[in-house]
């Protein structure tokens, strides 16, 4: 649909920044003249909608069937037929909304079956509450507000966070927040209440974070004279509780954040908690236990349900730089009770993060320097994803804009319309606090007094690529900074206007000076960064917006103590059909896509073609490049693509992945323009060292970040390891190797098996695919033939496996050693791949990988298997017992042996660059694994079995919309 833009949207930057009333509540607040039918409130003019025409009447609707299956076993997880959606919504977005957000029992008359019903349920609640609480000058303004909100939701311009869609307008409590921060004091009553409050929040489908630093350490005495157990011991109970309570009744576990101050006497124990458990996971995995994510034995491992972060101070970081001692302080008296070497402690933090990705860092002084309400308490913790940081016992409701919706056909970002959309959304978010329910009374009290909001965005990575900017470039960072500055400036401008209409937040009077100081810091940062052609106009509008916000705030105060964050945008990102989540770059250039009529395909990201057009390539050149990307998955050596443009197409994973420091620099560019922080994990290659982790954490502090976490490839157990350690040779073997070998050349002679020969049959499953392996031997020992039954009789798969078995059998009878076949076929990667039912081969990268590992275990001696890195469960357990503590297990992958099963024949009905998806691929991450020939560090979705993809510091399932985090 073509947008209908009001006259105000075409005006100058000055007029659109708020000098005159504008669409969606974007005009200035006004104190209306006293009179009949007139009240104090906001004036709202149209931005997207047309008078007399409902937004629903401007789009084409169609009926669809939503049938969602478990990728691993084919069972149906969810089914609802005949749902109604606009024709431009993808099937994936349809699936997510239908299964996640439609309310009512499936199959009942009360079940929602149309996007219209869902949007009306939510927008109607906001509309009624806005009128009731005096937000609008007239009923007509309120009606325009509702229609503009409807249009933006309908056209995927933005989305509220998931709790809004779950709860608003239903009989359930009207919880609108996804982010919570709790508090715990140094009393048993407070600790037990912490368990209770976390349980209530997890039960509602959200996550929570808290700081345990008030709890006295294990090196201090109790009032009774005994020794305290320390905060780490209480973490065990909370972790068990979180693992038991499935978040929101779903299959994923609860999300939580645990923070400890760096000067706590138990800090070293806290740092090592998850690293020690990761070592335990390796021991149990190699002993044959099911330690996969969601496995039956993983529950025996502790601390796996929380993200851990250390709250570091400037004093500590300066001590690290200077190599001086640092004092650990008593929790009861504040006195230094122990001194430690700062560099040693920092090294321990980096070492633990290198081993298991925890702990992350939160930079305490930076966080509190940007705190708008210091008179009401310090900021000591964050939500589980680290983007919301404010007072204890508080919450934040989130909403995110789809940045690509503001990119015009000319490649320019529509800054005026973006600013107006922000103001309308902030209005709606503030209204929600008026009717919202909260899980605990302390959280309700703090939220109503401070009214924290968290507006943010998604699709930044796609926007940068579409405009021809590399993610790790000065121009890309400048564009991201200008957009973020405009967003937060427009949000606070509207917050100040709302304060003039319905009053500032209750805690403002006490914190007025500090709040104004932080606003000036934001405005100064806006004036201080370097602009480029694509960001100059946006920065100019941001400057005007901040100026007006400061003036209005000085007069009226502010309605909200916080306005903006950058959240993971997991499920809602899929709802908006975003290519990228939050601040993240693109995952890969080729993605997996579900089709409306059923089935799936792999498709080159649409932003690739937009980027090529923006960079000036002709249509024929662009088409050739897109076809090359479809075949190879990257742009290196693409025909006609200039090497200086390669960086525009760099992604989070793949042939050209963005350097870790590139992620840090992007975070640093936008951080000064956010009230809160950024949910993002800096991905590091497996070869990264502990020194590299230290450098990342130091640079994060120096660049002014509020929080930072890293993830090193293969640092966690949960994906297949390609090779084990080679066993030590025995003296006899060494002697045999030293003796000269006589080589006799001869022609191969086939040694046939006798009519009657010993054999064994093994049944197996690989990722749910069942099969049988029958191996026949010579009477004097030695494998001579194999038969593999896989697939239905008469099927193509069964025929291919029969032919394969015959060729291997003939080769064995001609004297080709079994170890040759094992070396060639083990580690071969294609679907089905995953968990098996064999305790000796727990994970297989393909059926052939499993078969030849099994044959090696049954027919090869230990010395030969040791050279191939193939051991039984008992042998691995023995190795671990001998080598425990010697270091991480090698995980080198034989990439030369990798073979892709991707069908690259494009269907005639699709544009260039679109290929049919491999039958066994269920997500973009799995498609990327096929391209790279190695496993991605992402868990399987516990709902539908597909491989999840990173989304901020969480993981997101493209198949069903489940997340591993709190949003």
TrEMBL record:
KW Oxidoreductase (keyword) present: yes
Keyword Glycosyltransferase: no
Biased composition (Low complexity): 1-20
UniProt keywords, alphabetically: Cobalamin, Cobalt, Disulfide bond, DNA synthesis, Nucleotide-binding, Oxidoreductase
EC number: 1.17.4.1
Composition skew (Basic residues), residue ranges: 30-39
Domain TSCPD, first and last residues per copy: 755-858
Name listed for the protein in its UniProt record: Vitamin B12-dependent ribonucleotide reductase
Cofactor: adenosylcob(III)alamin
Domain Ribonucleotide reductase class II vitamin B12-dependent N-terminal: from-to ranges: 66-156
Example GO molecular function: nucleotide binding
Segments of this protein annotated with the region Disordered: 1-40, 900-919
Family to which the UniProt record says this protein belongs: Belongs to the ribonucleoside diphosphate reductase class-2 family.
Classification via Pfam families: Ribonuc_red_2_N, Ribonuc_red_lgC, TSCPD
Residue ranges of every copy of the Ribonucleotide reductase large subunit C-terminal domain listed in the record: 177-711
InterPro entries assigned to the protein according to its UniProt record, in alphabetical order: RdRp_reductase_class-2, RNR_2_N, RNR_lg_C, RNR_NrdJ/NrdZ, TSCPD_dom
């Amino acid at each position: 649909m073509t947008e209908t833009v009001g006259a105000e949207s075409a005006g100058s930057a000055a007029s659109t920044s708020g000098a005159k009333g504008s669409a969606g509540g974007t005009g200035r607040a006004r104190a209306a003249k006293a009179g009949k039918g007139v009240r104090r409130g906001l004036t709202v003019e149209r931005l997207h909608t047309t008078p007399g025409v409902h937004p629903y009447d401007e789009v084409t609707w169609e009926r669809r069937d939503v049938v969602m299956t478990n990728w691993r076993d084919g069972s149906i997880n969810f089914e609802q037929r005949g749902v109604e959606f606009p024709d431009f919504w993808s099937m994936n977005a349809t699936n997510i909304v239908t299964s996640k957000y439609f309310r009512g029992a499936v199959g009942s008359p009360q079940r929602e079956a149309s996007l219209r019903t869902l949007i009306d349920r939510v927008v109607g609640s906001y509309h009624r509450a806005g009128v009731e609480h005096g937000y609008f000058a007239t009923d007509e303004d309120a009606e325009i507000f509702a229609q503009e909100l409807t249009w933006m939701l309908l056209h995927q311009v933005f989305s509220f966070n998931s709790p809004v869609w779950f709860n608003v307008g239903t009989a359930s409590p009207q919880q609108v927040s996804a982010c919570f921060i709790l508090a715990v004091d140094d009393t048993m009553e407070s600790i037990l209440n912490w368990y209770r409050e976390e349980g209530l929040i997890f039960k509602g489908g959200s996550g929570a974070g808290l700081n345990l630093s008030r709890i006295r350490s294990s090196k201090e005495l109790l009032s009774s004279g005994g020794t305290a157990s320390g905060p780490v011991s209480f973490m065990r109970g909370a972790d068990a509780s979180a693992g038991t309570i499935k978040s929101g009744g779903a299959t994923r576990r609860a999300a939580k954040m645990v923070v400890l101050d760096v000067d706590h006497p138990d800090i070293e124990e806290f740092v090592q908690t998850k690293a020690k458990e990761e070592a335990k996971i390796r021991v149990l995995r190699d002993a044959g236990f099911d330690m996969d994510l969601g496995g039956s034995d993983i529950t025996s491992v502790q601390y796996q349900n929380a993200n851990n972060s250390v709250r570091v101070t400037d004093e500590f970081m300066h001590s690290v730089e200077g190599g001086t001692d640092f004092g650990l302080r008593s929790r009861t008296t504040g006195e230094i009770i122990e001194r430690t070497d700062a560099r040693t402690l920092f090294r321990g933090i980096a070492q633990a993060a290198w081993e298991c990705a925890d702990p992350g860092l939160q930079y305490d002084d930076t966080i509190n320097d940007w705190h708008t309400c210091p008179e009401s308490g310090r900021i000591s913790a964050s939500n589980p994803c680290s983007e919301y940081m404010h007072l204890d016992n508080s919450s934040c409701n989130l909403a995110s804009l789809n940045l690509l919706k503001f990119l015009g056909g000319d490649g320019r970002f529509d800054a005026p319309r973006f600013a107006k959309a922000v103001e309308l959304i902030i209005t709606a978010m503030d209204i929600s606090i008026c009717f919202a329910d909260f899980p605990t009374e302390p959280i309700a009290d703090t939220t109503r007094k401070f009214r924290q909001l968290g507006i943010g965005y998604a699709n930044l990575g796609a926007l940068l690529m579409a405009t021809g900017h590399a993610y790790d470039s000065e121009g890309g960072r400048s564009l991201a900074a200008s957009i973020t500055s405009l967003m937060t400036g427009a949000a606070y401008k509207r917050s100040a206007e709302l304060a003039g209409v319905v009053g500032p937040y209750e805690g403002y009077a006490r914190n007025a000076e500090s709040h104004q100081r932080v606003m000036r810091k934001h405005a100064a940062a806006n004036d201080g960064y370097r602009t480029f052609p694509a960001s100059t106009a946006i920065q100019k509008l941001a400057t005007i917006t901040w100026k007006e916000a400061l003036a209005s705030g000085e007069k009226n105060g502010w309605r909200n103590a916080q306005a903006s964050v950058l959240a993971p945008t997991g499920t809602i990102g899929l709802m908006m059909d975003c290519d990228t989540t939050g601040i993240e770059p693109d995952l890969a250039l080729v993605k997996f896509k579900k089709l409306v009529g059923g089935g799936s395909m792999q498709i080159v990201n649409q932003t690739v073609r937009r980027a090529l057009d923006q960079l000036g390539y002709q249509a024929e050149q662009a088409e050739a490049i897109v076809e090359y990307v479809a075949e190879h998955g990257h742009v290196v050596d693409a025909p006609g693509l200039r090497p200086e443009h390669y960086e525009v197409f760099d992604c989070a994973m793949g042939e050209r992945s963005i350097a870790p420091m590139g992620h840090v620099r992007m975070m640093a560019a936008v951080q000064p323009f956010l009230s809160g922080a950024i949910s993002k994990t800096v991905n590091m290659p497996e070869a990264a060292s502990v020194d590299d982790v230290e450098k990342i954490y130091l640079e994060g502090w120096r660049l002014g970040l509020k929080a930072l976490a890293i993830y090193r490839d293969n640092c966690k157990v949960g994906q297949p390891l390609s090779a084990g350690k080679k066993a030590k040779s025995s003296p006899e073997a060494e002697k045999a190797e030293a003796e000269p070998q006589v080589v006799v050349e001869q022609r191969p002679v086939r040694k046939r098996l006798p009519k009657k020969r010993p054999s064994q049959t093994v049944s197996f499953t690989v990722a749910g695919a069942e099969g049988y392996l029958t191996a026949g031997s010579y009477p004097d020992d030695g494998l001579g033939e194999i038969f593999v039954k896989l697939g239905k009789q008469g099927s193509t798969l069964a025929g291919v496996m029969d032919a394969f078995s015959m060729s291997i059998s003939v080769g064995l009878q001609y004297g080709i050693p079994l170890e040759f076949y094992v070396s060639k076929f083990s580690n071969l990667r294609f679907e089905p791949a995953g968990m098996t039912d064999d305790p000796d081969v727990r994970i297989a990268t393909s059926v052939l990988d499993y078969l030849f590992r099994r044959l090696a275990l049954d027919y090869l001696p230990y010395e030969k298997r040791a050279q191939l890195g193939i051991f039984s469960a008992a042998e691995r357990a023995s190795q671990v017992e001998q080598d425990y503590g010697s270091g991480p297990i090698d995980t080198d992958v034989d990439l030369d042996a990798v073979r892709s099963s991707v069908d690259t024949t494009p269907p005639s009905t699709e544009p260039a660059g679109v290929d049919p998806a491999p039958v066994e691929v269920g997500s973009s991450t799995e498609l990327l694994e096929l391209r790279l020939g190695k496993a991605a560090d992402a868990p399987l979705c516990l709902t539908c079995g597909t491989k999840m993809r990173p989304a901020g510091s969480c993981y997101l399932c493209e198949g069903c919309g489940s997340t591993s985090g709190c949003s």
